[in-house]
Amino acid sequence: MSHNTFGHLFRVTTWGESHGPAIGCVVDGCPPLIPLTEADLQPWLDQRKPGGSRFVTQRRESDTAQILSGVFDDGEGPVTTGTPISILIQNEDQRSKDYGEIARAYRPGHADFTYQTKYGVRDPRGGGRSSARETACRVAAGAVARKVLGDGVKIRAGVVQIGPHRIAPEDIDFDAVHDNPLFAASSAVVSAWEAYLDEIRKAGSSIGAVVALEVTGVPAGWGAPLYGKLDSELAGALMSINAAKGVEIGAGFDAAELSGEENADQMRLDLNNQPVFLSNHAGGVLGGISTGQPVTARVAFKPTSSILTPRQTITRDGQETDLRTKGRHDPCVALRAVPVVEAMAACVLADAFLRHRAQVG
After folding, report:
1. What is the distance between the alpha carbons of residues 336 and 330, in angstroms, rounded to a whole number?
2. Residue 258, SS3?
3. Helix residue spans in 150-259 (DSSP H)
């Protein structure tokens, strides 16, 4: 299997399976002399780890990160050395017996059929390599990327829609995201959303959701035309997250309903004679290059495919059957996708920053 690496100068390779002994990543291209310890990684991993509330899978994983290489304490604290940073996360709570039945039948909505067709072999335990368990590695890499970007770049994401229930754009509050178990970007919707998701969960079903992203502090100039566009690479990175089915930058699909006059982000000068935009339909990117405005995106996630309602499928030997997926699964996978969305944005932006610096100084 190839294509387990993304990025250009800031490169991330992830490895491991859902029910293997461990998962991990290698971050290559991180500049030297950046202070980095395992304590810098853990807060972000703690946001993503399972078992945090009744609304996510009850698999119990501490997601404790161990840095194996690329960091050295020269007497003034651990710093990066410029060499590959290898990070290990042990798998602690596999329950492989839950997946005995799907070893022969393909789960509808999952990657079982496509992996078997492409490789002639697949690991049915929790989805193997296709499991969202892999996203813990991305979050660890994203924590390193945040250190590269520094405190001036602020990356925030939150759930803005669950099923048909939406938060109005003017009511989005990213400060509320980590004060509720749904990662909702508004405290006002939490009670109603919890009741709605409880119904979904108790029925053994699942529901989709939308996660919004906002990044502030990105200066003008990052990204490159024509095939290194910042918005293109961000969209590709976000689409690579498990269960992501759609990404829009800025106004996104709503731009199709705007006139040219409405969509154009007009410009003026501030009191210091610096350019300012009067709107941000472009999502902080024009011509593939950052404008200095907030970089914004939205990611649509499908419902978790593992549900208790029997679904029609076929077996490896060509027999039709009905399959009810057992195991411990998220009723709404987008909840724990919030820190993953942030991490992928961090990795893309760290890469864009290093490439910009390399090209123009």
Report:
1. 9
2. coil
3. 190-202, 230-239
Would you state the structure tokens that stand for residue 65, as one six-digit string?
């990160």
Strands (E) across 43-175 are located at: 65-67, 71-73, 78-80, 85-90, 154-162, 165-166
pLDDT in tens, 199-215: 999 999 999 999 999 99
Check the CA dihedral 55-56-62-66 and report its sign: negative
- 3-state secondary structure (DSSP) of residue 115: helix
- pTM > 0.90: yes or no: yes
Question: What are the pLDDT digits (tens) for 286-332?
Answer: 999 999 999 999 999 999 988 888 999 999 989 999 988 776 678 99
Q: What is the DSSP letter of 275?
A: E
- Which spans in the chain are helix H? 38-48, 112-119, 135-149, 190-202, 230-239, 260-263, 334-360
d(CA 212, CA 176): 13
